Amino acid sequence: MMETILEIRQLKKTYPDGTEALKNINLSIKRGEFIVIIGPSGAGKSTFLRSINRLSEPTSGEIIFHGEDIVKANRAKLRKMRRNIGMIFQGFNLVKRLPTVRNVLHGKLGYMSTWKGALGLFNQEEVEEALSILERVGLEDQAFKRADELSGGQQQRVAIARAINQSPSIILADEPIASLDPNSSRVVMDYLQKACQEEGFTTIVNLHQVDFAKEYADRIVGIKNGEIYFDGPVKELSDDVIQSIYAKGKEAMPV
Amino acid sequence: MKQEALNISNQGEKGLSATKPSKYSEYKRRRKIMLKSQGFITAIILLLAIWSIWGTGFNLLSLFFGTYEILVFIFTDMFPPDLTVIGQLIGPALDTLYMSYVGMVISVVVSLVLGVLAADNLTPHWTIARVSRAVTAFLRSVPAVVWAIILVSGIGLGPLTGTIAIGLSGIGILGKAYAEVLESIDGAQLEGVRATGANWFQVIGQAVWPQFKAGFVSWSLYKLDMNIREAAILGLVGAGGLGYYLQGSINLFQYKEAATAILMIFALILMVEYMTAKIRERII
Amino acid sequence: MIKNKETYRQQKKVQNSIFTFLAFAFFIFSMLQLNIVPERIVRSIERLGYIFGNMFPPVTNEPVSLFTAAIESIQVAILGTILGVIISLFLAVLAAKNLTISPYLGYAIKGFAGFVRAVPALIWALLFIVAVGLGPTPGILALAINSIGMLVKVYGEALEEIDMGIVEALESAGASKVQVILQGVFPSVMKAFTAWSLFRLDVNIRYSAILGVVGAGGIGWELMKAAQMSRYDEALMVTIVIFGMVMSAEVLSEYMKKRANAASAQALN
Questions:
Q1: Predicted confidence pLDDT, tens digits, chain A (255 residues)
Q2: Any domain includes B69
């Protein structure tokens, strides 16, 4: 519980148009933590999460993951490190025309030889593992349906299954429930939490719903204007702090 | 609902040995269906390819050989293009333009009549619609070049032949397109105007034309785009324009002149496409 | 406000009248330039009547050679299409701005495809005949290169429209470029690619039927012979065979599509 798994130092991201999305982020994350990042939209939450696995290239800084700097990794090294980082997106990002189980199998691509993976030659063991993970997210009956036939909540659970199948040590979830209704949101968050507890994944989730954040997080990080504004356990997150995180931002207070 | 889902997953957690084999065999069964289907399509394509290679005597080497030869041909025989013949080419280029335009007007006029007759909601009688559709289908199935070949022997060499050939093949395409646009117009508006006691011409003018205009303009301009390409090659069979000049210079081994003619065709096509795009913007 | 609208409509009306007038004037001008005078129109309509009258009933004196030529045309179209599709697949991935390894390479390929597309297939055939000689081979190469011009454009557009989220998801799972393209991108664009490829087969069959007129083999040559002897009934027969070629390709591809759809319905229920 005490071992530091991810250490972010002086992370900066400036877009070509000069926007400073991340100004100076320092964050140390311990194994098994369930961290929720909150903040107004445009504060840099998404950029921050996407910088961790370099879907968005940081301008400067260090991201030490398992003792190695992701920012300095070359392409091959980056691929190897990325398979240790599961990612869940707001838009699910499944290959809609492929069966659900194949989408879960995609989590294994990083471990396969290029051509085996490219041609989709998964062996019995891999398929069985994918099927059992689908079962764990309650979708065993949907395993062979086309991904786009599933509801939004179910698709997000497939995406969780895909991330689990990577056997990562950390999971990044970028607004995983922003396009779901409240009921499916809860189901998705429950599965995410459960998977992380069972597997001991460290989890970083971006949320804009503060109530969900309080309910699921061990630790909350508030980001405002590209900087960390609050960092602490849920009980320290007072209403005043929430107010000031969201203050000045044009958008209404989230409920 | 959430409770239920979690229960299922709790059961399924890790100790899955009981359900594993049947699930996997299901996966294999479905995968087999897909592989069989993909295999069937691949096999048909392969068979067609082998049959065609055998029939035409084509070999893959000629792909590389051909690429090499055409590059050599273009860069040594055609390059640099002989720009001194541009003066001679302006006449044929304009002819090509005129042919496309007049051909378009001919096909627009005839297609308007055939389109109205063929559209289910406007035709005077369904047998007339059938006949009109058959005529357009026949004209459409024959490429303009084929019409040109037939007409050259019947009417003679020259741009008139090319113009008629373009017009005929255009009727096939525009007749069908107009009929489809007309069929998709809103019937309620038609009824409304009809209910005021308007005659046929008034119905067309007041109810049909406003809805038909956009489709009419864009299809007609599209046809003009197509025509310029067709007109450029009709000359290869003697129907006037740039193609005729191109054929002549190749027959005389004047490849540098031919290159200029091709560039001219290229420029003409781009110019007309640019203009039709502008007109489309203005009108629609 | 209402007055503005009124004047706007008035302006639009004037503008439209000017357009119509110009279009009409250019039509008359073109007719005069082409030396199309009423007398010639009447004469050519007479000739058209004569030609159409002599087309029926369609006949053929050499059914065997007509059949062989038709087969050769189909084969030329098939090979032209297959080569075009395969090469375009590679080029389109390199040309699509969201997948390319270098934007400059992307522009170069798009520029090449644009040029190749703007030069009509028949002219390519003419050039290939000069370069590699008579026969079906120049026809195949001409159709292949002309197909590339079109397919790279439409494939590329389909690729540029894909949901980049899929690419990000697979990349963040550690997948390599080839894996992302084959496992994520191609399944997403398969339907569009198939539709365009079959459309191109249809176009290529029509083209292959006329390649013969410049000496690239196939049924076009039969048509030339019939036309040069003014045998319009034979010409019509050749035309009917061309029509049959296009139809049979359509029937075959419809059948294959149906079968594939039935299979995936079975596998994905």
A1: 468 899 999 999 999 888 888 998 999 999 989 999 998 888 889 999 999 999 999 999 999 998 899 999 998 899 999 999 999 999 999 999 899 999 999 999 999 999 999 998 999 999 999 999 999 898 888 889 999 899 999 999 999 999 999 999 999 999 999 989 999 999 999 999 998 888 889 999 999 888 899 999 999 999 988 889 899 998 888 888 888 888 764 444 444
A2: yes
Q: Distance of alpha carbon A123 from its chain centroid, rounded?
A: 27
Tokens for C216, please give them. 């690239």
Tell whether C245 is within 8 A of chain B (Cβ): no
> Which structure tokens are listed for A104?
């879960």
CATH number of C66-267: 1.10.3720.10
A70 and chain C: CB distance < 8 Å anywhere?
Answer: no
B36 & B66 share domain: yes
Name every chain A residue with its beta carbon within 8 A of the beta carbon of B14: 132
Domain boundary among the residues B59, B77, B95 is at: B77
All domains in chain A, ordered by first residue: 1-82+202-255 (3.40.50.300)
Domain ranges of chain C: 10-50, 66-267
On whether both B53 and B154 belong to a single domain, the answer is no
CATH number at residue B233: 1.10.3720.10
Which residues, listed in sequence order, are joined to residue A87 by a DSSP beta bridge? A172
Residue type, C132: V
Enter the ipTM.
Answer: 0.89
Flag whether residue A77 sits within 8 Å of chain C, measured between CB atoms.
Answer: no
Q: Which of C66, C70, C75, C78 lies closest to C209 in space, CA to CA?
A: C70
Verify whether the Cβ–Cβ distance B36 to C263 is below 8 Å: yes
Q: Is C42 exposed, middle or buried (0-12, 13-18, 19+ CB in 10 A)?
A: exposed
CA distances from B257 to B260, B261, C47, C213 (A): 5, 6, 35, 22
Question: Which residue in B5, B16, B19 is closest to A138 by CB distance?
Answer: B5
| C82 contacts B49 by C-beta, under 8 angstroms | yes
Question: Which residues in chain B have Cβ-Cβ distances shorter than 8 Å to A135?
Answer: 8-9, 12, 16, 19
Domain with B253 in it:
85-283
Interface test mutation site (partner C, options B58, B220, B228, B260, max chain C beta carbons within 10 A):
B58
CB–CB contact C269 A53 (8 Å): no
